[in-house]
């Protein structure tokens, strides 16, 4: 057993109001700059919908994440070292600019500067990539907001595969939910494993996955290797970039920007202690339905004295262990079991988990007749299959298709509402609802406090980094999740100073990649995001 | 700013691994020691020089505290503050508060949309400079331009067509000041107007201009009614503008009906209280035609057809009345109804065609006409159940202005009888109107019955008995037609509503029953959140009254966690008394010229000339013809001459000259004016709005985008008010036989009425684009100010993170400069004058008992004598020391001590506060304001606002409650106990948001961690509501209300535009397919009105421009694919935009999120070749006659309190796919 601490996040989708404040604050702080215009470290998608980039969930197309080979061993879905080597100049699984969107701005100056003219002036759209005026804007990072254009695309959403009859673009059957997404900072990150340069690493102390901006060699295998499509390629600096889990803040004990600015108060941050040595086995269980429990089994109970002793031995600071005990992530995922991983079937053991949403009772079941008992206001809420969001749809998102997992969580949430209504609204006490879902009244009430009262200090339990160890930071350890048979090699295994596309070797110094520097690496973005076939044609 | 060059640092070359670490047990992962110094880069990005607290001044009700980050002297970004005072351990906090729009604000500061310098249209500036040079005087220069019709027309026609040139502040202000001075001199101060909305969103900035206009006698335009955010139902029912629970009180509700307000989108920072209260056991039911953000959180979605909400509410009322008031009596509901509602009050029944119709409330004066009961016409009557005798309960408006100590709701042993059913002399058939039938607006008649008695010679019944008849809840022995059960499709059963709304009858019944049962078990903790979706309709007052009836039937109002929760507009200035003192300069002179904006713009933009809906069209089939033959402009003229509503400009003569004339004639001003009016030499300006002398001439807009956002009838504004060539109006004028009787029709419609339009803003909106002068304003991160909202109890400060960029100035500085130059020019041209202010009869003053019994008496028709202040407006002379305007503007005047501060009828002495401010702000030395507290610094103005309000100064709260105790005769000062020594200073609020205190300025109790809920003071202290009866009124008995059949809450469908206007299609000879759709303009997720809709972040996060949401079915019909260009048009104008097709939209309805300005990405239209308009290109002002009523208790004028609303939601539009190429120029 080797114990490490991981900063994890839980988002309660049941509270998400779809406001996108998280996206905007993240954008302004991290990616509002040349080369990063199209990047949204945090985005929010309306589901059903194809998302950003389009159909990111379709791993048959993008080949992100892991799969089991015929021997049941874990391997990158995109293929091993050999395939990578063969395709190193023409990564076949990269999304194009069309899959993200072409960022744009407007000629606002016109409004003030327009000379005397026939009509009142107008600011026209202009591409931030080509600088050309755009006659038409045809896609954006949130094009499908609130089911916009859904009738044309609803079944392009990979989650609807197999349940098309349950998800229809009809007014009477309308439903929607929001899915805010950041990097999953996986325990078993396929992006790190995909990186030929050793530029990607998972920090030992907190599990944050980063791209070393000095070491990145622009291969972009991380972009394709990540099944969540949360690694992006900066077309100015020529480096991959991704959500950093706001480590400059996390290190100070502050929540990420997206968390602190979440006005839906849906986000939780906390530590999870886990056993590094069990990661591979957990990610390798044959049945996808077992992946959830397998990942849970990797998590360790920080209150267990043995775990505590080993953690200390493995260098986890004591105050971090204490913080892990209070961790809302651990509580929601492990104790109350209402949080679930996003697409566990990708086998990356993601560390941003979600509480699935309740939804209105479907109209066909809404009417109980005139005799409905007005004291039983939640009469249909216990039945997850009566709700508008199909259980199977949620299961495809959060449970590798296992609807029972979703039903279990929704029943616990419903039981909480029943129980608390009795206690808080009607002033009665009754343990029957908690018991029916295998919980005690106390547990239900504690869960209620965490989900409803949700004070700042309970949402975010983040111990500051021990920067007094700063001397060590110079040679701090990073974890690479790679090194297996037929893998692309361990950290830096492909250590080549091959010049990729010209200019890649230009070192980009510490902060320079954030700035529109004069010496910036100005890549041909068409090549980066555009038509792969053109690359092929040019013999790359 | 120089960009740092990438450094070739020592890290270069260190990218290789330093050493390898151990491989994990299974060999899966490996520790590798590597150089991580590069991580410093993101840490560097996160570092900043300082973090400054500020907020956003936008009409969104948010009022959120933000941390603004400054790095290298630039604002980089913002995140929400999280340090709000705690709500206590058992509920969620108010943190964080903010939304994506606010989070994108910093984009504006350095964006190319920012106004950096003053601009004037080149032709006008050249003219002005040339004439000033020639004449040597700016006022004469201005006169020479505008008094020459050819010259004036030429520069006006260029409005909006580019050609701005930079001007210096001195030149721009010189031009503005000269225009004001000239107009006052030639036409009068009531020809200059200022428009700025929503003081709560930045109080000092609002006050800056409003104070200037109030000091010069200019017209200060209202906004809350103009925006149609005012729910007229609130004055009608509560006698209060709007008072609602803070969002934290949603937490206390056990049942939440969300009805016309999309909480996650429009109350983004507060929506979490709703999502979290669900976990506490709250049930949430959403009524909405589209599947919107809030629907996601509902337990049930009731998809009522747009505008039919009143029908659903009537049916719910039917169920509640039947099950909780008739089949079974509910003690809590009964006790509440007896004491706090008008349900037990007696209503007279008038005979009509052999049956009866409800008439007015019985009064004390009816009981014994001979007796000299004080204010007997203003005291309703009920029957005491114990004695069976009529009793005049305390608390009516008659008591309010009578002997002190009786204005309270104490029953003193009386048990009000709610129904006469067991105690009737006879059972009487009554006819009641219904409006769900017929092709026009008139509806039909239904016959019901009530138990009645004879009292004081009148046949009477109770309000509750009438209500039961209205809702169709029968009882044994009553005559009339009654529904047999819920499935009987008679009004107002669940089955009846199903045919109208489409909502399943059983579901409607179930929600009603649950709502009431929850209230019964929790003593009223059932709440209805409502807003623009149900409030922006023409008949929204009726719709809202059907909602309010539900909360009154269930005893929910004045209870934490219960009642109405109306959220549209950031109307709540918590330190109201302080703001009003400063903004309206009541410290120097009273009264200000407050004007209802809706009728003002109706005349100013000549929309009245296109009127096709007559007031009588809305009349009940049981009406008496009181409105027959009138045009809406006639109703406005009547309201002006009866003192109901203000009307500026007032007369066809300069009010300064009128006073001089009176003086010369030796008569009093009032006598002179009455005589001139009577003898036909003087006319109200609103009787000839086309006359050049009656036009508003000079208008300044700040903190607002009138043209690109709120201007209903946008194209009419462009054509008539501004005289541009770009207007897209397609409408026909009013046919000759429907034209006004009392208002002059000129053959030639006036165009280009305004001589000068000035906009002060920080971004280039279309209001700025069409203005003559544009002044650059400081942004919200560049100034000091105050913000409050109804949604939370805190006072927030604005603070400058950086100095006003480029040549921008704060609104406070801008108006100081304008006032200063104005005063300089006034020395020569104006001097000291006396001004005649024609003021309407005001609410919360004795004026409101001027016109008894709700009868309309027109002195012009000889129905009464013209008596200023009773049968006509008040005529008040105010001295204007024009050269002293700037000095007064910058100092707190002496009337604060001399006359005290008045707020909603309560007054207090603030002498101590003046002393405090003199010390705090420093005293002015010399001049007219010698020794007065200085207001030159805006921080001091903020301090004055906070010092002069009871919400932020406990001493005044106690003083106010003591004063109120005398009027009411019940104890109330205890409400402020503990806060007497508390005072929130501006500096306090800069450190942290501060929680306000309970104050008589408002009706709720917010002490000791209690959440604000309105009218808790009324319920818990027996303080009357500010209505005629002192109770919450279901029944409103003014004769015009009865004329419209709206004595009681009723369902009135959306206006039948298709029937009125017929086909509004393109009629361009093409055979292209069109569809006429209901046109809804809800609030957007990607903007706050027009703010942020031009922000690249928001444009990126949706589709980069205006979109029209349509249904799958309608898209298929017109062969429109998602994102296709379409065109939407009707008689009012044309809009060019793209379509969004979605299954969340019902067939027959389209949505264009409102306040989509025409300045970003809008092409020329296919239909006319002009710039595609705004959402308001398709609307036009329509006004309801009952909103003009005045001089009658709660139906009396108050600024933003009562008046016609600028509703727009009933409109229909025609849609077709665009075929031609999209072009922009």
Q: How would you describe this protein?
A:
With 540 residues, chain A is of the alpha+beta class. Chain A has 3 domains: 15-101 and 141-248, Alpha-Beta Plaits (2-Layer Sandwich), CATH 3.30.70.20; 267-459, Orthogonal Bundle (nitrate reductase domain fold); 467-537, no CATH class. Helices cover 29% and strands 13% of the residues of chain A. Chain A has a 5-stranded mixed sheet with strand order 13-12-1-15-14, with helices on both faces. Chain A has a 3-stranded antiparallel sheet with strand order 9-8-16. Among the domains of chain B are: 308-566, no CATH class; 1065-1217, Barwin-like endoglucanases (Beta Barrel), CATH 2.40.40.20. Chain B contains 40 helices and 38 strands. Chain B is globular and about 85 Å long. At the A-B interface, helix 1, strand 5, helix 4, helix 5 and helix 8 of A face strand 1, strand 2, helix 1, strand 5 and helix 10 of B.
The value of Rg of chain B in angstroms is 30 Å
Main β-sheet, spatial strand arrangement of chain B? 7-6-25-24-23-8-9-22
Main CATH class of the largest domain in chain A:
Alpha Beta
Count of helical stretches of chain B: 40
